Amino acid sequence: TEEWPPVSFRENGQPGGMAVEVVREMLKRAGRIEEIEIVPWSRGYKLVTQLPNVLLFAAGRNVERERLLTLIGPLLLVKTELYQRRGERWIDRLELAREKAVVGVYRASYFETSARKNGFKLFSLAATPERSVRMLLAGRVDLWADSNVSSGAIVMKAGGNPVDIERVMTLDVTEMMLAISPGTPESTIQALERALREMK
After folding, report:
1. Do 59 and 71 contact (CB within 8 A), yes or no?
2. Residue 49 pLDDT > 90, yes or no?
3. Could you give the CA distance from residue 67 to residue 81 in angstroms, rounded to a whole number?
4. Which long-range contacts (CB under 8 A, 24 or more apart) does 116-122 make?
5. What is the pTM of this model?
6. Environment class of 33 (CB within 10 Å of its CB; exposed 0-12, middle 13-18, buried 19+)
7. What is the pLDDT of residue 3?
8. DSSP of 67-124, one letter per residue?
9. Is residue 2 classed as helix, strand or coil in its secondary structure?
10. Is 158 exposed, middle or buried (CB count within 10 Å of its CB: 0-12, 13-18, 19+)?
11. DSSP letters of 118-172?
């Protein structure tokens, strides 16, 4: 998983968060003993697409991921929101924003894909969501795309205050899933699916 509070994050050096708790319980019920590791999203995504027996969470459901990976869930529903610095005027100029505004997102994220699908053309790709929001707060990007679930925590982690940003528009609503790599035994996938179903 990635650093994405409150869904997943480091807590006293250990993985914590709502999704981490769910996955730990799933693994336990499925009789698995794997460790959960927090890595940058782009690294996790590379691993889940290239190696067998990798579980990546929480991954936004989209056509490409459904084609490449086995998705189980959902863990939660999230809105992809587009934010601006409080007091900016992009909310009144969305067509101009699609052509001229630079959107900060973290590289290879679902939020980048969502903003592109919504017609935004210019992007500043960062290694972490905190870097993207720091760029927004510093005026180095015009807009920032991330989820309604995590945006407040990300702003605070980046040293800002959630009141410093405001929502411009909702780009989409998606299911956040558990993504399982190709080559993973079907018995493992079925055990994880059964565990999540029982928990629900």
Report:
1. yes
2. yes
3. 25
4. 117/171, 117/172, 118/82, 118/171, 118/172, 120/145
5. 0.77
6. exposed
7. 87
8. HHSEEEEEEEEEEEEEEEETT-SGGG-HHHHHHHPEEEEETT-HHHHHHHHTT--EEE
9. coil
10. middle
11. TT--EEEEESSHHHHHHHHHTTSSSEEEEETTTHHHHHHHTT--GGGEEEEEEEE
Return the structure tokens found at 62: 């989209």
**How far is Cα 153 from Cα 64, in angstroms, rounded to an integer?**
28
Kindly give the interhelix angle for 18-29 and 186-199, rounded to the nearest 10 degrees. Answer: 120
Q: What residues contact residue 107 under an 8 Å CB cut-off, 6+ apart?
A: 41, 42, 125, 126, 127
User: How would residue 193 be classed by pLDDT, with cut points 50, 70 and 90?
Assistant: very high
Cα 142 to chain center, whole Å?
A: 20
Q: Tokens in use for 72?
A: 């189980």
Phi, psi of 192 (to 5 degrees): -70, -45
For 91, the token pair is: 């909310």
Residue 6 backbone phi and psi in degrees, to 5? -90, 10
Please give the structure tokens belonging to residue 60: 């936004």
* Mode of pairing for the β-strands spanning 55-60 and 165-180: antiparallel
Nearest to 1 by CA among 53, 43, 31, 33: 43
